[in-house]
Design goal:
Elements (H helix, E strand, L loop, with lengths): L3 E7 L7 E7 L7 H37 L4 H8 L11
Antiparallel strand pairs: 1-2
Protein name: EKC/KEOPS complex subunit GON7
Keywords: Activator, Chromosome, Nucleus, Telomere, Transcription, Transcription regulation, tRNA processing
Organism: Cladorrhinum samala
């Protein structure tokens, strides 16, 4: 059976590029169990890629901050509120 590759490529004008490929083998039969197993593997692969991308980008952000020797208060607030809706206290 042939395999497929799921990959992420990062390019930047100031940072080194990186690529994260994951090879997946589609199910050999069309049974529900085989498809469920394949989809679970696909979901795990996507989560793994996302974790790797997050680590790479966090490392690059830290390197950028070291180069500029600053970490703004806004960066700290953004990290603290990541994924949260921020409502202004003026409202």
């Amino acid at each position: 059976m042939s395999s497929s590759t799921l990959s992420v490529k990062y390019t930047s004008t100031v940072n080194p590029h990186f690529s994260i490929p994951v090879t997946l083998t589609p199910p050999s039969d069309t049974s529900v169990q085989a498809r469920q197993t394949y989809l679970a593997s696909l979901r795990d692969s996507i989560s793994s890629i996302q974790d790797q991308v997050n680590k790479e980008l966090t490392t690059r952000m830290e390197e950028d901050n070291k180069r500029t020797n600053t970490k703004s208060v806004n960066d700290e607030k953004e990290e603290e509120n990541y994924g949260e809706e921020v409502v202004s206290e003026d409202e």
